[in-house]
Amino acid sequence: MVKIAVLSDVHGNATALEAVLADARAQQVDEYWTVGDMTVRGPESERVLSLLDTVAPTAYVLGNHEENYQKVLTANPNTFTKPKQVMATVLTAFDRRQLSPEHFERCLNLPMTVTKQVGPLTIRLQHVLPTVASGHALAPTASQANFDEATTGDVDIVIYAHTHTPIMRYGTGGKLILNAGTVGLPTALNPNLRQPRANYLVLTIDASGLQQIDYRSVDFDWKQAITIAHQAHLPYVEFYEQTLRTNAYQYAPSAVAAYNTQHDMAQEARKILLENRR
Ligand SMILES: [Mn+2]
């Protein structure tokens, strides 16, 4: 029997990750898998990756935020100017200043998918689709066709991430689809389902198959997480703070666009991109 913790969307929130790792230890987890977006948005991407090193995850896959690291390194300053691209540029630069060269390099070289064989089960990890690490294809209410596209290939279970919404459903033909939710930025559409707790998943698998799926919600000191963000002079700190305070998603393109205008972020992003190209 093996107990596997599935962690996704930590987003640089080391405070939440510490609480989750303590809970996983108490659950006597044997192995850790991650499903992308370990960094970016929160203040402590380096501490997140160092904490993860202490449990040595056996799977890392590319999230859209790690993918943005790659994009920002080679982006054209004249065209990489959409509101979220400006934010990605500034947040990538913030992370790059704190990340060790080894950690940054690892983020730049993540695979799109990792496939694991555990007992009788073939399990594939992917941030969104097998070949796409971003976008809304697997929003919780997306069409079944999208979930069928997510489960192509010779797999029994697909675990994805990105939506910050815990999910258990099926592809046509019975492939199981799981989403562990989010460790670092808990949000929900329904106000009554919002809660300031870190989500992750513990899978228990033995020779007969999947014995238990445990969706865990763990309390963490979100006020302390906000304090750390302010102390670190995190860019876009208002978005991070409001997400942790309200558990409602704050990073809509229109809101980011307004913030960019107000704080002249396009100028800062342009400076960063020009420096990257030198
Ligand atoms: Mn994502």
From TrEMBL:
Alphabetical list of Pfam families matching this protein: Metallophos_2
Molecular function GO terms recorded: phosphatase activity
Which top-level group of life is the source organism from? Bacteria
Which InterPro entries does its entry note? Ap4A_hydrolase, Calcineurin-like_PHP_lpxH, Metallo-depent_PP-like, Pesterase_MJ0912
Question: Taking every annotated instance into account, which residue ranges of this chain make up the domain Calcineurin-like phosphoesterase?
Answer: 3-193
Q: Which PANTHER family match?
A: BLL5683 PROTEIN, METALLOPHOSPHOESTERASE
Q: Which family does it belong to?
A: Belongs to the metallophosphoesterase superfamily. YfcE family.
| Protein known as | Metallophosphoesterase
